[in-house]
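Bit of a strange request maybe. I'm writing a small parser for structure token strings and I need a real example to test against, not something I typed by hand. Could someone generate the tokens for this chain?
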Amino acid sequence: MLEANTSYSFPEAWEEYLEPIPENERHDLITAYHKRLNSDDERTRVTAAKAWSKWEYVAPPPPPGSREFSHTN
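Reply from user aminoacidic:
Good idea to test on real output. This should exercise your parser:
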């Protein structure tokens, strides 16, 4: 998984990305973030959006032709 590999290159950003998600939900970060980004609580939404956006800014995109890349198109 690209996230696992990228987490080693950017450990501080990875920790900030994980911070809004309880440990028992970290096995499925997409679902966990979806839940928070669609929360009724504004603070929860904003916290998740900031963490997600920062990770997207820091982490490089998957290389073309990779399995992760094919899921983004």
